[in-house]
Each structure stands twice: as C-alpha cells, then as structure tokens.
Amino acid sequence: MSKQKNLKLGWSALLVGVLLVGCAQTNQAPVETRTGFGRTTTVDPATLPGAENAGKPGYYTVKPGDTLIRIGLEHGQSWKDIARWSNLENPNAIEVGQVVRVVPPGAAPGEGRPSTPPTTTTASSSPVQGTALPPAGATSTPAPPPVPAAAPSADAAGLGLIWPASGTVIGTFNETTNKGVDIAGKAGDPVVAAAAGKVIYVGEVRGYGQLIIIQHSKDYLTAYGHNQKLLVKDDQNVKKGQNIAEMGSTDTDRVKLHFELRRQGKPIDPLRYLPKR
C-alpha cells in the first residue's frame, strides 16, 4: 500500500512539473499585475495600444502617474492633438505601458522635442584645399575668438513676454525641483497672459492645481498654476496682458502663481526672457 502511495505521489509531482514547464513556455511575454475594483488582472504590455511603436522617436510610453495633460505639457503639445494622433477613444483612460504619439503624423522624428542650439562655425586648424599658406617666418594677425552661440530666445520667436503677475518672485527656476518661477500675491490677484496665444488647456492637474496652458507658437507655450478661479476656456484666443485667472493656492501651501515657459516641451528659465524689474 505504501509503495502504491509513493508511486501516486511521484506521478503527481511529475505532472505538476510538466504543467509548470508548459506555462513557462507559453507565457514568455512580460506581464504586469494590476489590482482594482476588487479584482486582480494580468496585462501583457505587448497587447496595449501602440505597443508596436514603443521606443520609436516621436512616441512616448505611459508611466505610472501620467495623464495626457502632463504628457502634452512635457512635449509642448496639446493633449487634444496627442489624443487625435494616437486614435484614443477615451483620453481619460490611458494605461501604464500604452504608447502615444507626441509629434504630428508625417513630422520629422525629432520634431516637437528640444533641438540643439546652433553653434558657431570656427576655422579649422588644418590647411584648406585651395588656400595659400603664409611664407615661413611671416607673421599673421591672430583670428578673433569665436562668438558664443546665443541660446534660443523667446523674443526671437516674437513673443515679447510680460510679467503674468505683479508680485515678488519667491521661487526661482531649477530643472529638477522647480520648472518655472513662483510669484507671490494675494488671493484674487489678477493673472494675465504673458503673450498672445491660444488656450490649449484649462482645468485641474495634480501638482499644478487649477492650471491654464497657452500655446504661443509651434515652439513656445506658457503655463499658469495654482489659480483659484479660471477666466478663460479651451481653444480661446487671448491677447497679451489679458486677465486669464485669479491667483490662488490650489494644490500648494500658499497663495502664489507658478509660471512656466517651455520651448518644444523643455522648461526654460522665464527670468531670462521676462523684462527686468
């Protein structure tokens, strides 16, 4: 009896081993386990929308905590355009691992992302074909040092920025901790458009509170956060200096305006382009 029992246990162990090997062979794709609404589901990233474009230039893979609004802000695009380019049926339901298009269809792969500033061409140290060398012993006037290339300027784009609020600057630009400047004020103080443009977002965004984003050109946009009241709507054209909001403290610890200037989605220091006070 003991021998039969041992045989049964042996066959059971062998069967379990075969099943485990079979599962390992048929489920080789990476999976992600998600829990919600009282149930746990397993999602294969390869089955998510746009997965075939993962890693390609001009595409972005959704990460935890992302929203379409924030993706648009980081890439200098309207969230509506990204939804349209990506054929999203419900822009409010994007999933981690999903891939969305962040440049217009047909655009160059790098378009919509920060470009390298132009550099100044300098003389080569090697002889150039067809150019005569000075005779031995002759002196020559040293070439002037190359002029450093100018950084991309908002004024070069014709924006002519003005201050969006009249308060004191209490937070300066830092690429890692503060992607704009913070301007102090009282609740209800006017917030104005720093330049003419088109409103591409009005609403609530985590970390920004009540937010307005204005597109000024293909390359430049500005963002205005922590407002208590929004006075414009999506797709509205605004003039430079037009009242667009009332200063507030939504999603922050005090009344202030958080103001960002972005070039092709990359945050740049607004104080370099705002008029000196």
Automatic annotation (TrEMBL):
<feature type="domain" description="LysM">
    <location>
        <begin position="58"/>
        <end position="102"/>
    </location>
</feature>
<dbReference type="Pfam" id="PF01551">
    <property type="entry name" value="Peptidase_M23"/>
</dbReference>
<feature type="compositionally biased region" description="Low complexity">
    <location>
        <begin position="104"/>
        <end position="141"/>
    </location>
</feature>
<keyword id="KW-0732">Signal</keyword>
<dbReference type="InterPro" id="IPR036779">
    <property type="entry name" value="LysM_dom_sf"/>
</dbReference>
<feature type="signal peptide">
    <location>
        <begin position="1"/>
        <end position="29"/>
    </location>
</feature>
<dbReference type="GO" id="GO:0004222">
    <property type="term" value="F:metalloendopeptidase activity"/>
</dbReference>
<feature type="region of interest" description="Disordered">
    <location>
        <begin position="104"/>
        <end position="151"/>
    </location>
</feature>
<dbReference type="InterPro" id="IPR016047">
    <property type="entry name" value="M23ase_b-sheet_dom"/>
</dbReference>
<dbReference type="InterPro" id="IPR018392">
    <property type="entry name" value="LysM"/>
</dbReference>
<dbReference type="GO" id="GO:0032153">
    <property type="term" value="C:cell division site"/>
</dbReference>
<dbReference type="InterPro" id="IPR011055">
    <property type="entry name" value="Dup_hybrid_motif"/>
</dbReference>
<dbReference type="GO" id="GO:0009279">
    <property type="term" value="C:cell outer membrane"/>
</dbReference>
<comment type="similarity">
    <text>Belongs to the E.coli NlpD/Haemophilus LppB family.</text>
</comment>
<protein>
    <submittedName>
        <fullName>Peptidoglycan DD-metalloendopeptidase family protein</fullName>
    </submittedName>
</protein>
<dbReference type="Pfam" id="PF01476">
    <property type="entry name" value="LysM"/>
</dbReference>
<dbReference type="InterPro" id="IPR050570">
    <property type="entry name" value="Cell_wall_metabolism_enzyme"/>
</dbReference>
